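Could you join me in thinking about how sequence relates to backbone shape in a protein? We need material for that, and I hope you will provide a protein of your own picking. Label the sequence line and the structure token line clearly, so we can match residues to local backbone shapes. Would you write everything just below, so we can both look at the same thing?
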Amino acid sequence: MPKIYVVGLGPGSREGLPLGTYQKLQSGLPVFLRTRVHPVVASFSEEDISFQSFDYLYESGEEFAQVYSEMTRLLLAAAANYGEIVYAVPGHPMMAEQSVQNLLREAPIAIPPVEIEMGSGQSFFDSVCTALQLDPVEGLLFLDGTTLAPDRLRGGLHTLIAQVYNRQLASEVKLTLMDVYPDDYPVTVVRAAGVPGEERIDRIPLYELDRLDHIDHLTTVYLPASQDETLLVRDPWFVANLVRRLRSPGGCPWDLKQTHQSLRPYVIEEAYEVASAIDEQDPWALQEELGDVLLQVFLHAQIGSESGDFTVRDVFQSLGEKLIRRHPHVFGDVQADSVAAAEMAWQGAKEKETNTSDVSSVLATLRRGQPAWKLASAMQERAAQVGFDWERIGDVMAKLREELQELEQAIEIGDAQGIKDEAGDLVFTIVNVLRWLNLDLETVLAGANQKFERRFSGVERRVEERGGDWKKVSMEQLQGFWEEIKNQNR
């Protein structure tokens, strides 16, 4: 079976080259280098070590993923041709080496299969931590500059970004970091860590990152962990922990008192606030109101975790699984090149979920996530479809009067639970009346709101004309103003 010996050249100094790696390089086998731009390579001519490098692939203008894919193909072909080859990479073969990961994945399924034997090597990671006097156990993110994305960053952790090969990539890294960090955030640029006479450390503000003229393949960027709340509050997990703190002993008495049920009105209220901000086309208000909705999510998740029911991670999991499951045209093999096709794919996925549940009840498949009055109307429609309905509108009006009388009786005897129950029955019957009249509760109530606001504004003007002091105007006068405004706007 063809074989590739993968070895590491260390961080840069000849003294850091492992003995086993040195012996493999001198074995007479064909040697391939990911890059010849490495301090140790200069000594190869003295040791009579010949090699081929893949530097020309980096100059092809292709994306890094394509470069490493082509590199893997060429290495596997060389192994099949020569039988055994040596592949040498900077540092340690298993540290920030995408080409090696590609080999480990592709070699077993290559034709013919290729055996990979992993050698040793000193990682640049050790030298960088030594140069920075950094202990990784404090909490460290170790990221690849070629695939850096804002969602991978955590301002509260020390962060090392490797593979910042040149100034162009440094510019891209800078712009990505600025999505999370202030423009003047202190960064440390370490070049050739651990290489005697070549190591260089620059401490600069973030906005100057791509202005250094000595950035190359030996460059690593470091950002210290921040304790600045103005930065940390941009991290969703930091905010989730703020909510946890509110619910912890010594936290906020109001938040500690809340339950799922007590928070229910606020969930609905915040959703309406979001809708209002959308209607007003106010992006700043929308941003704030979306945050308020997210607070409700975090509060319910925290309460759920305290009772052992679920955590915020479970919420994320449920959402993530549903997004994947209901978008087979994005995450699966279903084709959808139009809005209509996408909706059909989504509906099909949703129906598969529905078909796995108990749908024996007429009401089983009703969508529960809607205002209570709308759900009441939907329930009444479903019941009417199977014949459970009044015969005429007069019967519904009689039921309305009956429910009003029952509410009055509950109020008279001071039955708190009865008042709540009868008030619910009254509203439910009102919805039924409107259904019979083909009227929408939201629409008619919105009209009533506008009418009240218009008339009350007229009353306010009358009070203002009399000095503006509401306490000096009797209830009889206010009612007179109301009737006057009402008659004027008939």
